């Protein structure tokens, strides 16, 4: 993922811009890294950035996907796992 991509996510409101340290560097948290993986995975799966923003906001509010309940498994769940596996090792 490029710096330009991360900055685009900041501009679109998908990822909050973190505070800077005394050296002027942005300090991203572990949660920011997790959110970036979520955004990248959904984007690679063809989900529009506006929809990703909605999904992340719903997750923050504690809401679940429509129709999701105990024991509910989305039809594409295994495909999603393949996408995550294709991301490669974490850095």
Your description of this structure?
With 91 residues, the chain is mostly helical. It has a domain of 57 residues. About 13% of the residues have low confidence.
Structural class by SSE content: mainly alpha
What is the 3D shape?
globular
Radius of gyration: 15 Å
Helical stretch tally: 4
Classify the helix fraction into a percent range: 40-55%
Low-confidence stretches: 66-77
Can you give the mean pLDDT? 77
Cα-to-Cα separation, first versus last residue: 11 Å
**H and E order:** HHHH
Number of extended strands: 0
Query: Biggest β-sheet: count, sense, barrel?
Result: none
Strand proportion, as a percent range, falls in under 5%
Summarize the structure.
The chain is mostly helical and 91 residues long.
């Amino acid at each position: 993922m490029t710096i330009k991509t991360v900055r685009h996510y900041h501009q679109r409101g998908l990822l909050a811009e973190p505070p800077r340290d005394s050296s002027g560097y942005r300090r991203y948290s572990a949660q920011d890294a997790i959110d970036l993986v979520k955004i990248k995975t959904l984007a690679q799966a063809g989900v529009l950035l506006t929809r990703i923003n909605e999904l992340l906001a719903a997750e923050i509010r504690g809401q679940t996907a429509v129709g999701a309940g105990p024991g509910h498994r989305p039809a594409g769940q295994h495909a999603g796992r393949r996408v995550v596996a294709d991301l490669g090792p974490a850095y």
